[in-house]
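tool=predict chain=A
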Amino acid sequence: MSLSAAEHYRQQQILNASPAERVVLLYDGAIRFMMITRQAIEEKDIQKRYDNALKARNIVQHLLETLDMEKGGEIAQNLENIYNFLLRQFLEVDKNSVEAVDEILKHLKILRTSWAKIAMGEKEGVKDVSKDNIMA
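tool=predict ok
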C-alpha cells in the first residue's frame, strides 16, 4: 500500500520532530478533530461526532498517560488536572454540547500555543529546564 504525498509528508514531519514538536502535532490533531466534532454536532451527524471526538479524546488520554509526574513537578500536576478536566468535558460532548466542544478547544489551543513556544525555543537553542521533565 503506497502512501499519498500528504501522508508521507506527515510521517516525515513526525519522524524529524523534537519531542516538543511532537506534542504540538498531537495538539494540532486534537484541535482538528474537535473542530470536525463541532461541525458534526451542528450537522446532527452522530457517527461523525462520535468518531472525531473519540480521536481527540484518545490524544488527550495519551498526553495524560505520558506525563512524567516524578520529574515534571508542579507543571506536570497542572497538566494532569487540565487533561482530566478535558476528559470529563468529553462526557458532555457525547450529549452534543457545543459549549463543551468550545471549552475543550479553548484549552487545547492555549496548551498548543505554549508547547509551540517551547518547541521554538528548542530550535533557537533556548533550554527551558522545566519542560524537559514534563513528558515521559
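The two ends are 33 Å apart (CA to CA). The first helix runs from residue 5 to 15.
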